Amino acid sequence: MTETETTQSPTDECRVYRTVRYPSIVQIKAAIPHRLFESNVLISFYFVFKDVLIIAALFVALRLLEHVLPSYCQVVVFPVYWYLQGTMFMALFVLGHDCGHGSFSRYDTLNDIMGTLIHSVILTPYFPWKVSHRNHHKNTGNIDKDEVFYPVRTSLENGNNFVYLFGLGVGWFVYLWRGYHPRNICHFNPLEALFRNHVAGCTLSIMTLITWVYCLYVFGCSSGTMQLLKYYIMPEVVFGSWLLVVTFLHHIEVDTPWYSGTHTMQHSLPFNGTIVKRIV
Fold first, then answer.
1. What are the tens digits of pLDDT across the range 185-233?
2. What is the pLDDT of residue 137?
């Protein structure tokens, strides 16, 4: 891939053009050892079982501490539990993320089944997220097509400022519900235009999520809303905060230019942690 790179002086009085040859995506991929692209079902399930066991152990440990510690000590215990359990929920999201990318196993059906089950537990509609996430990877850095954390054109501003820190934990679920302005999309609606070729998969994921929400409703009715709040909802908020912070830091850099389909400008193309600059 041969492209032209422009160097501009601070006084903008002269420009120096030079031709730079960058490796193509195919060449970069060919340079990476093949074994790093191979998935292993046993290793994947090992992480699933490990994470589930840790989540269960944290819950059991909290229940035991509730019975042996005085109530004033629980003021410290519960925030620690929320942080640790929310972090483990983030670990579950990563496993579902790998299912969406097809790296959990070589079998698409198994990937989608596990992704749906794992993501439903953390209130994320797997298949709609999978589709929109792939759209993000196809359009990373495109101001007109990317999914989230993109600059909004002045002509499309609606006068509403973003919530402080994007709402942290709540911001993730707001995004799932209505998308990111101005490209609004509801991940709980399988009939959205973006999902038109994946209605069946999106519907199954949403139905699985609804089933899990019903289980939470039954638990709340039998054990009380406060129990549901302190054991599950608060870790969910921590998980949402983790996800927002990680994705924001992963995709945003002050010096990273954006590009569009109608304007030629320099942008940075992320590829497995490597930044390859090019002219589009």
1. 899 999 999 999 999 999 999 999 999 999 999 999 999 999 999 999 9
2. 80
For residues 162-190, one letter each, b for 16 or more C-beta atoms within 10 angstroms of the residue's C-beta and e for the rest, the string is eeeebbbbebbbebbeebbeebebebeeb
Tokens of 150: 């993109």
- Specify the DSSP element, H or E, that contains 258: none
Encoded tokens for 153: 């054109």
Domain ranges of the chain: 2-155+164-279
pLDDT band per the 50, 70, 90 thresholds, residue 261: low
Q: With contact defined as beta carbons under 8 Å apart, do 240 and 87 qualify?
A: no
Outline where the chain has alpha helix (H): 25-31, 41-68, 74-101, 108-121, 126-138, 168-178, 199-223, 225-228, 234-251
Structure tokens at 174: 């707001």
* Residue among 157, 52, 161, 45 at smallest CA distance from 104: 45
Question: Cα(129)–Cα(92) distance, rounded to whole angstroms?
Answer: 15
**% of the chain surpassing 70 pLDDT:** 79
In angstroms, the CA 238 to CA 114 distance is 23
Contact 129, 100 (CB under 8 A): yes
pLDDT in tens, 67-112: 888 888 888 999 999 999 999 999 999 999 999 999 999 999 999 9
CA 70 to chain CA centroid, nearest Å: 38
- Per this entry, what is the length of the chain? 280
- What CA–CA distance (Å, rounded) separates 149 from 143? 9
How far apart CA 48 and CA 55 sit, in angstroms, is 11
